[in-house]
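Good day; I would like, with your permission, to put a structural problem before you. I would ask you to consider whether the tokens describe a fold that such a sequence might reasonably adopt. The full record is reproduced below for your convenience:
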Amino acid sequence: MKHYKYLIIGGGLAGDAATRGIRELDAEGSIGLISMESDPPYMRPNLSKGLWKGRPVEKIWRKTEERAELLLGRKVTALDTKQKTVKDDKGDEYTYDKLLIATGGSPIRLPFGENNIVYFRSFQHYQRLRKMADEKNRFVVIGGGFIGSEIAAALAMTGKQVTMIFLEDAIGGRVFPSELSHHLNDYYREKGVDVISGDTVASVQMDGDRFNIQTGSGRAIEADGVVAGIGIRPNVSLAQEAGLNVENGIVVNENLQTSASDVFAAGDAVNFFHTALGKRVRVEHEDNAVAMGKLAGRNMAGANETYNHVPMFYSDLFELGYEAVGEMSSEMETVVDWQDKFKQGVIYYLADGRVRGVLLWNVWKKLGDARALIAEKGPFKAEDLIGRIKGE
């Protein structure tokens, strides 16, 4: 049974960031990091963004092994928070002084085509899809949200024939105002993508090395590869079985401590209090994972700091790109302020007269302004927001 002063469960960005936070305050304390992945921690967003635009693979690695002992290809099967013990699926046991749960999320899967659909999440998924793209030509992407829209764009930019299928009326339909999301349908079609909106995938079957996809409306599509990006579910079963408080994620306090002493949590699987929004949320984006993981690491090493970061997220869609902060939903009241319609502008998301989210559409270096605006109490009217934040 090996002992670590700091033990981290999860090899994503939050787990890596925790090693950095620990080392800021404790240069010598032993750190162990257990990960289900066979690869060491890496920059996950590059899998659907930078690597398709020529970013070298060697640039994505986080060099976590310089700060921690990596225990890769292992799944934690049991956690006893009273005895401070952890067991993995290879039969090894560990003890700890401080523990971080950074188990992230797993892709939502379809009830068919289990072994052949690429559920895009990990570096191994990227490698598999990249090999397919190097050898084959026709792809179906299931999902019109963050991952689906990025992968469809990435494949189309490499010259592949891409068909998108998703339930919503338009790309990003759950997040963007209707006019913008419907514009994205046209934009993707102009880029050569066959956009099938408002439809479902009823079946995926193999015919030799080809896929036959049937949609709910009766369309039949042939493809060389099928990729699904339809969201993730937080990995909370370990925390639940250990008796931790779980409600839409692992519940933490302002210091990122769970309901068990000396156990912290960070990243996609965590339910935390968003100070700017004034409510509990769960955020599945890089910036939150990195900031939260680092602060959790610092607190594991004795810092006792409060997590009050306002996380951002971003995306690249062909030549378009955006950064955003706060809460965004197409069902919210919005104020749209275009400088160049659909090409550059700011969209404000409001609730009860307060700005709850800001979408910076091809507007850069304005995240500070957006965060400050969310912190203001308002109330705001549309005329108060027009021209408030502008692109350069």
User: Anything to note?
Assistant: The chain has a mean pLDDT of 96. The chain has three domains: 2-106+232-300, 109-228, 319-385. The longest strand covers residues 93-101. The radius of gyration is 22 Å.
